[in-house]
Amino acid sequence: MHVPDGFINAPVSVAAGVVAAGAVAAGLRGARRELDERTAPLAGLVAAFIFAVQMLNFPVAAGTSGHLLGGALAAILVGPWTGVLCIAVVLLMQGILFADGGLTALGVNITVMGVVTVVVAYALFRGLVLLLPRTRRSVTVASFAAALVSVPAAAAAFTLIYAIGGTTDVPVPKVLTAMVGVHVLIGVGEAVITMLTVGAVVAVRPDLVYGARGLTAPLKLRVDGELVDAAPAAAPAAGGSPKKLWIGGVVTALVLAGFVSFYASASPDGLEKVAADQGIDKNVEEHAAADSPLADYGVQGIEAPRLSGGLAGAIGVGATLAVGTGAFWGVRRRRTAALEA
Fold it and tell me: Quick one: which of 13, 30, 2, 227 has its CA closest to 107?
């Protein structure tokens, strides 16, 4: 759902940029409370993983594909404030390096794909985990529902922005119906990916999952015919380094972006398809970074598609990991400095 330049007029794009900048500023402050010495590296990994999985377009309908937005996944794994920053880092890397998502539309994209998805998903997620039994399974079930709803919510948010500042005269009801309709289907894929990823991390390191903190029910033992709480086991790595998870995540992201992405669907994603069918793309503008050596997720000068795309994906994962990890460590250090002052 990367909005290109030309879909939204300049005044509304600027306004969305202000909203996005405010959200990032708030995220920087809020992330200080969410990140510690163990989760700061994980936040950079989450950004890199989302970048990689966004390269894996999956078919959802005739001639249409979808890809992960990632807001729900980021919010549940590392917290809502940090989640907004994760998506902002991913979108910045995609726009600058790969000409994916307009630069003048960066504020629109962060607002729609970052802020809206995170707010909607995390609010629903928290509500569900309060209602469901306090178990790890509840976390994965809630993550599925939160991710499912977040995608059509983002589609509706784009439609609202289009209604205010669209550069074409396509009737808003037609845009809303088309956008929400196809993104409900994409939401199913988003929900599955989010549920599986959250479930995998919860299974090995529940202590690192922000949304799972304090939710696991204590183990019960039957003693003399009565159920009593068992003594809590030591956390898998309480206070320890999440090095194994980090290395496994990096390797997975590199494999997905560098190899599996070659088999992704080549069909246009939901926004591209709706824009082409409804005529929203009449005023689309060429991307300012169209001549980038990595534009369109390929390395300029390398003719072999598999090698070109795989290398570009690996470079993207590395760049996103470096920028994200550096930013989150910086946020963490500022928190430490504030506490010591």
Answer: 13
As a whole number of angstroms, the distance between CA 111 and CA 199 comes to 27
Q: Write the burial class of residue 187 (CB in 10 Å: 0-12 exposed, 13-18 middle, 19+ buried).
A: buried
pTM of the model: 0.91
Number of Cα atoms under 13 Å in the Cβ half of residue 299? 15
Angle CA 168–174–179, to nearest 5? 95
Cα angle: 29, vertex 155, 186; to 5 degrees: 105
Indicate the pairing of strand 220-223 with strand 64-66.
unpaired
Could you tell me the domains of the chain? 10-219+241-340 (1.10.1760.20)
Q: What is the CA radius of gyration of the chain?
A: 20
Whether 198 contacts 129, CB under 8 Å = no
Work out the number of other CB atoms within 10 angstroms of the CB of residue 221: 11
> Residue 305's CB: how many other CB atoms inside 10 A?
10
Alpha carbons 210 and 42: distance in angstroms, whole number: 11
155 in helix, strand or coil?
helix
CA distance 43 to 85: 9
pLDDT tens for each residue of the chain, 341 residues long? 899 999 999 999 999 999 999 999 999 999 999 998 888 889 999 999 999 999 999 999 879 999 999 999 999 999 999 999 999 999 999 999 999 999 999 999 999 999 999 999 999 999 999 999 988 899 999 999 999 999 999 999 999 999 999 999 999 999 999 999 999 999 999 999 999 999 999 998 998 999 998 764 455 566 666 655 555 444 444 445 688 899 999 999 999 999 999 999 999 999 999 999 999 999 999 999 999 999 999 999 999 999 999 999 999 999 999 999 999 999 888 766 655 55
Instruction: Name the amino acid, one letter, at 28.
Output: L
Please tell me the distance from the alpha carbon of residue 43 to that of residue 136, in angstroms, as a whole number.
21
3-state secondary structure at position 64: strand
